[in-house]
Design brief:
homodimer; mainly beta; 4-stranded mixed β-sheet; two-stranded antiparallel sheet; 8 strands
Chain lengths: ~130, ~130
């Protein structure tokens, strides 16, 4: 694959760039995690999303233990190259808590409120580790 | 305002947290930028989004020069507290290039392709500075 586009991505001092995953058809923002150069290349090559786990310091093939992979539909770079937007087709759920997306806490009047339910109990998800996004 | 919820946010070693802005009704992901504690509090208090500009090292009241403010509809925190999702109502356009959102570059077959048009020429946008997201 031609990887000349990599010079459009501004990796930070740790060699990472934040990547937002959005469900391609519903618009739901699923999660945010980080990618390094290798994660970007693997994601584009395999058409399945691979992040960089900061806590485990290794490539994190999303869904490798749970089966809840993210199929890549489109890969976008923002205007200054320092954020990625991945349009994906999420199999199962995106969040390690078993919710469909990670943004289930809403602040209302200064208080945190849980706004979505667990779809799949985490113990059924084969021990997939917490993202460190 | 009760600010006890702040302990649910994991600010990084620079005191910052990434914040994704999404148009509340269409689901369009508009941009990603950074917030510090003061930006979070001001955003919730004024119901208009305020980021922290890393390049200018000061609060960045989105739209303060262009008028293209982001009205806050909902404020969400992810499962591990290190990313925010802001549901907003965007006035005008979000991107300093004059496009509606910042993610207008798509990678197709290893090549970068521009997929959306400029809606408002930047010179009409009263010199709002480039976000450093």
């Amino acid at each position: 694959m031609d990887s000349a586009f990599l010079d459009k991505i501004s990796f930070d001092s740790n060699g990472l760039v934040p990547a937002i995953a959005q469900q391609h058809d519903t618009g739901e923002v699923l999660m945010m995690a980080w990618m390094n150069r290798d994660a970007v290349l693997e994601t584009l090559e395999k058409k399945e999303v691979c992040y960089w786990s900061r806590s485990r310091a290794k490539l994190w093939r999303k869904g490798e233990s749970s089966g809840h992979v993210q199929k890549l539909i489109d890969f976008r770079i923002d205007c200054d190259g320092d954020t990625l937007l991945l349009l994906v087709d999420q199999v199962g759920v995106a969040c390690h808590t078993g919710r469909h997306n990670c943004f289930f806490t809403s602040i209302k009047g200064g208080k945190a409120e849980i706004i979505s339910d667990i779809e799949i109990p985490p113990e059924e998800m084969y021990g997939e580790k917490t993202p460190d996004a």
